[in-house]
Design brief:
CATH superfamily of the largest domain: HUPs
Number of domains: 3
Radius of gyration: 20 Å
Order of helices and strands: EHEEEHEHHEHHHHEHHHHHHHHHEHEHHE
CATH topology of the largest domain: Rossmann fold
Strand content: 5-15%
Helix content: 40-55%
Distance between the termini: 19 Å
Structural class: alpha/beta
CATH architecture of the largest domain: 3-Layer(aba) Sandwich
Number of helices: 20
Largest sheet: 8 strands, mixed
Oligomer: single chain
Length: 385
């Protein structure tokens, strides 16, 4: 059986994701198994997921995924490079034949070419030279690629992430092959286009179901409307309480805090009155908003730079159908897969994941759940989907 992996967040799952499933099976075969490796309760842009990992995993299986695994927190809150590398490492170990991802340009050859150039010896030197001139990282990256002869058009968010996926596959020498799918619509479009929505537009309209429900598969309407919602707004005071009382050494140990950025963030955490104010006061032309947001969540959850370097030791199973259950048996030969609620071997990663599950409940817009969420959780099995 051909297995196609997807590194995803589904925050939330929408019609564009459903189209990707259809495109995968049209290109690879109708019997292809789709394995999703999904961020848990905290996502790569530095945010609390709008729905819980179990509700989002169930949504994916209801729409055609066969198995949903949880991307470990240290990968989910990493840079684009770390997010991609962690996902590629895991999906290749569990035996996926392809890695599918959305891309604005739709040109797989151009993405591979850009990834090869970014792995060349001259790339880092050129990026550093352009950064020294005062530009942002995005502009320095683009200028370096152009100097090395890259094709135009590798500048949109999903294209850039696609390049990171290709780089990770080349660097690790895996047999898994890229399967890019051209996506319609804009990644961060403010207006909801039902057939090609952006997840950010759906989240922005979450209090207006008439606007966003047409952008998600009909089979998910009841699930989404009954599922508890989560937001930074709801958990902001909990975040501020933690951030204001962290010692200097905790900020110094954060990932992404080089060149004194951790110190600037620390001062703002102790002086500012809101999370948004902290982010605005800390970000700059060189340091993007999402980087600051990731640092804030790493500080809040206790995720250090040293932890970021540790390879994932296990992955949790979140949801599956009958075919997904059969996949799990063979996948366990290549990687440690744990059922939801199953106790992980003692490690810093296990402590971190349990803490993150408990703290996520503080972002609930409904009454806060008691502690011990990870131990109480169970796989979502949907046999008839």
């Amino acid at each position: 059986m051909i297995k196609v992996g997807i590194i995803c967040e589904y925050n939330p799952f929408h019609n564009g994701h459903l189209r990707q499933f259809a495109q995968i099976r049209a290109r690879v075969g109708s019997d292809a198994a789709i394995v999703c490796l999904m961020s848990g309760n905290f996502v790569q842009r530095g945010d609390a997921a709008i729905f819980s990992k179990h509700d989002r995993a169930e949504a994916a299986v209801r729409c055609g995924a066969d198995l949903v695994l949880e991307l470990p927190l240290r990968c989910a809150l990493s840079s684009a490079e770390g997010f991609a590398d962690g996902g590629v490492r895991i999906l290749s170990r569990v035996g996926c034949d392809y890695l599918s991802f959305g891309t604005e340009c739709g040109d797989g050859e151009a993405l591979l070419r850009a990834s090869e150039l970014e792995l060349s010896p001259d790339y880092d030197r050129l990026v550093r030279a352009h950064l020294a001139e005062g530009g942002s990282y995005a502009s320095a990256r683009g200028a370096a690629l152009r100097e090395l002869g890259a094709e135009a058009g590798i500048s949109e968010p999903n294209d850039i992430l696609g390049v990171e996926y290709c780089k990770a596959m080349l660097r690790r020498g895996v047999s898994m092959q890229p399967l890019p799918i051209a996506r319609n619509g804009a990644y961060d479009a403010a207006k909801i286009v039902p057939e090609a929505p952006s997840a950010s537009a759906v989240r922005a309209a979450i209090d207006k179901p008439a606007l966003w429900l047409p952008a998600v598969p009909e089979c998910l309407h009841a699930l989404y409307q009954s599922a508890p919602r989560y937001s930074v707004r709801a958990g902001e005071r909990a975040m501020l309480s933690r951030l204001r009382t962290l010692p200097d050494e905790a900020f110094a140990a954060l990932p992404f805090g080089s060149e004194g950025l951790w110190s600037k963030l620390m001062r703002n955490c102790r002086a500012c009155a809101s999370v948004e104010e902290i982010v605005t006061a800390t970000k700059s032309k060189r340091y993007a908003k999402t980087r600051i947001q990731r640092m804030l969540f790493c500080a809040f959850l206790g995720l250090t730079e040293e932890m970021m370097k540790q390879p994932p030791a296990y992955v949790r199973i979140l949801a599956f159908n009958a075919r997904g259950r059969s996949l799990i048996r063979s996948m366990r030969e290549g990687f440690a897969l744990l059922n939801s609620g199953e106790q992980a071997p003692p490690s810093d990663a296990a402590v971190l994941e349990n803490r993150a599950a408990d703290l996520y409940s503080l972002f609930s817009e409904s009454p806060v759940a008691p502690g011990g969420a990870e131990a109480r959780s169970r796989n979502r099995f949907l046999p008839s989907v």
